[in-house]
Amino acid sequence: MNGFYRFARAVIYPFFLIFQPVKVIGKENIPENDAFILCSNHTSMTDPFFKVAIFGRQIHFMAKAELFKIGLFRLVLNAVGAFSVDRGKGDMNAINHAKELVKQGRILGIYPEGTRHPVGPPHKAKSGIAYIAMDTKADILPVSIYREGKYNLFRKTTIRIGELIKYETLVNDELTPRTNMKNIVNTVTNELTKLWEMKH
Question: Which of 40, 46, 50, 59 has the lowest tally of Cβ within 10 angstroms?
Answer without folding.
Answer: 46
